[in-house]
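TOPIC: backbone geometry
CONTENTS: sequence, structure tokens:
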Amino acid sequence: MVPSIGGMGSHHPFDSSSGQFEISGLDETEITLTFEADGYARRSLPSELFEHGDHELEVELFPERFVELVLEGLRPNQTLDLWVLDAENQSIPLPVGAEYLAGMIRIQDARHTIRGLPAQEVTIQLQGSSIGTIPSIRRTIDLTADRKVELKIVLQEPARKEVTAK
């Protein structure tokens, strides 16, 4: 497990096979803690103000899961914004290359693999990148059992109102 602390642009990894680590010599400070381990979804805790002294945290990591997103009806050059939300409706940071983006990513392919997801129930949310393209779509899926799940979504254009002049 590699827990790390970050604040004001700094990043300090700690290698710990037992998952225990100690940070000393800090005054009261706001810290974001991130935990990573091979085969598990990355987990970041919201920034928290820690007072000077000892703090014990218990953090559960979930096995990593993948969703193969299949979008039927995606037009050429159409771009969709994608979010993955946890059970508390909080955005799950998604890996893009070597980085993690805490929020929305843009997709343009009819097939897209979403990796780094926790083995729990998540909600996939899609929305057209420009106004009037497709309505917002939300699908909740349970990732506890299968390592890779295929999610097929049929995209439909928004209904157009016909206006007749008199």
